[in-house]
Fold these 3 entries.
Entry 1:
Amino acid sequence: MKAERTSWSRGFTRQRRFGGRDGAVLGLAMLVVLLVAILGIGLLRLGEYNAVEVAKSVGAEHAFWAAEAGLAHARALGSQRIPFEDMSPSRVGSNVITGTTGFGSYSVDIVDVSQSGHAEKHYTVTSHGTSAGGVVRALQGHAALQVLGASYAMANGMETTPDGKRNFYGWYDWVDGPVYVNSQFNIVGPAQQTGGNIPLVSWGWMAASVAESVYYAGNIRNDNTIFWHPTDSTLWPDDPVLGAPPINIGACSNIFESWRQEAMAEGVVTSGAVFVWLETNRVRIASSPTTTNVFIRTNVVDSWNYYLINGTVAGVQGMVQGKVMLLATNTISISSNILYWTARGANDPWGPTFDTNLVTDSMIMASPTEVIVDADPRRVQQVDVHSAIMVCGDADSATDRYYGFCARNNDVSGAGVGQPVIRVYGTLTQYRRGLTGPEPAGASDEPPPNKGFGLHVKFDPRFVWDDLFEDKYSAYWWTQWRQVPP
């Protein structure tokens, strides 16, 4: 017979059976608590790390925006169109422009990097932006204070006729150099152009307009592409710069007056309607093409020779040797080619071997009314003009057909193959761009094709090194913005 267990022995047996398992559960619970604690601490630290990283990222953005605000401040000061060092106070040096934004603060350093003898002013502009949390970012760029009459192959005030019609650039017009207009580019093109593109401005040069868009007419691609490439007609670079700050085109009147004063003090002054012959190293002036009573002056070498006509130049042509400035208070008519002695033959500006460094002759023609090419497109295929040309005044009336740089027979159909062209090697500055081809019938109409002359302009960069253009500032041009180490 089995002995009966007491309650004490049953309890002792239960404790022995389950005592070890109770300790294991307690250890497991403690391990879980420890793991949860470690995970919580990790999550807290991860949250702190993320918060720090987010703060750094936001701080970097705020610092970048502050640096951009500093650049905008510098650009706003540039609207004065005077050198930074001539501002009051001077803006050349360290921390010369400071300010705050809702995101931080900025300070701007400006260094003058202009070349001696160069009419333009050049600066390196560095803006340091600092966020509220102390993060610093820096942006740096280049600012060039350009000059009217020398910095551009073509600089125009208005691109419309006096009665409000658009003055178009066509397939027969192109410019090998920088172009800046205080108006809108008006482009027209024929169907035969490859891809419908318009080759107006050559590859690598600036094309800037104060307008926010380009007006297109004709069968062309409506995407603001107005550049051409010299060897690859399928390659089209960046769009023109739109919304550019206006250039000070009105300053050309002040330039003309300063040159007129120089001519009165140092040059030859005559009145009436005269004809001018450029004969290698001298200038001949007469009251008619057949008169023998002429004025002849030999050009002074290595300095400007001023000729002021208080009246009209009825015709000018010939070969320039030396440096000639021809000013007229009324119209200047170009009767035939005007060529530099050192830019002809093998050194033709339109030839494949042209070298501008070999050109030592210079000419400037300026008038407050118009400079007219007095040629007939039925009889000539091209007219070459080597000169910087400046027309400082507007048209006389809404019906005036001749203003700016223009062609007298701009509505006459040409003869022969292709469009007759006027080729200018120099610079062209006009208060209102003149008509070398026909004007459209209405404000937005396309002009009739194959009439008048096409216009080709090849930029002569030498004038920007001439002291005649010092202080003739037009506008700041800002380029090469990039982030740099703070």
Entry 2:
Amino acid sequence: MTISFQLAIFEASVDGSLSPDAARDIFSGVMSEMLPDFGLRSLGSVTLEQPPNEELPKWKSKWHPPPLPVMVPTLQRITDIASLLCHCQLLGLDQHLSALISKLATEAKMTGVGDFPSTFLPFLKALGASLRKWNIEVQHSAFQGLFQHVMSTYIERYIQQPPPIFKDWTRETVTCKPDCKDCEKLNEFLANPHKQAADFLGGASRRDHLQAQVAGTGIEAEQRRKYASGSAYALFLTKNQRYIEIGRKAWEKRGEETRNSFRDIESEANLKALLGDAYAAIISGTLPEQRAMHYVPPLGTSANTANRLPPPGPRGIKRKSVEMIVIDDWVVGKQEPSLSRSLFCCVLFGVLSLFSLY
């Protein structure tokens, strides 16, 4: 409801129903209250994206619990938040805009990389379209910093660095829970530069677990009797060169997927201006040099000392009557020239409280 109210306030200032100063004061007051909980997935309506319904092997439920549903912002909400940032810029609320963008940059760092295609990538596309619509200058702006940091974060965490090319039998180790003795032995084998093959005795569930840990790596895995005349089964692993080939192809595939996603964003956004000196590197799926990046101050620095921002001007001292106007079913106070800005915020918050009762 808060975002819809702010968008209505801005539209009222555009069509002349509300003076620019009044719109700026109301917008700024609500924005200060919104800031502590601001984020793509913490405002408005979201949908639950269920994980794929796949039949898992027996060991999966023990070692890797099924993924939880993901909170996904709706397309309308993404578009509204993009418009909100542009309205901050157009109203001259630079300090508020900087704080919101810092929150988004922090949220991108903490968002799971698998969630980017349904959150930050469509958001950047919507924001780029909104910036074009309002003809906002983006070079050396907070918007440039946001695009650079979100896109480079995605490159760093999804594409990652090219897989190493081993000159011996060393292979990357696996991760598991700390007390898994089987994986400890497996990692000893994988990290051994001189050992190409090994076998692991154990029950069926333990063998399945170890085989799943090396699945997709190219390492040959076979379960058979340890001895031809015996009854004990073992998992036999053999390192080979396919490990490097598979890793390289997977890395190249992630890079191509990322470049396609960035080209989709560029269909609506002027990425050459938004990425600046980092454009060539980011659009190709590589990390740019640090000197090409626009600095985004984190929350708590001198650029933004608190999660709650003050109104954008001095407080008035004289009080006059408030004229009530209606904007798309929202009731707001219209400011007289000398009316206190704090009174506007009080009126606004009172209105929001009344709405919450219904």
Entry 3:
Amino acid sequence: MDFVVDHAVAIAAVIWGAAILVGIIAAVVAGLRMWRRSRLAHGRIAPAAAELAEATDRAQQRLDAVPERGEELRAAIHELQLQIEAVSAIAETAAEAADTFRSPLRYLGR
């Protein structure tokens, strides 16, 4: 018991350092999980955005061939284009998030 009383500051510093280390490790693990999920989401969103773009192109070609329902089809195409823009924005944000999570690894040399 005398050891604890004599070295209270050193023991407190070791406990404080261990608590900080555990917090840093938890933050790194959470960051890696988020990075993996954002990469997975980006991998799923990119093909869907490409499919939407192809669907829009096909719809535009059909629209040019069928003039009687043109206004209705133009509105539908416009909605598809807005959805493509939204999906692309989400994909860009996911890519930026992945880059943000990767940036600390550059400082560590990995």
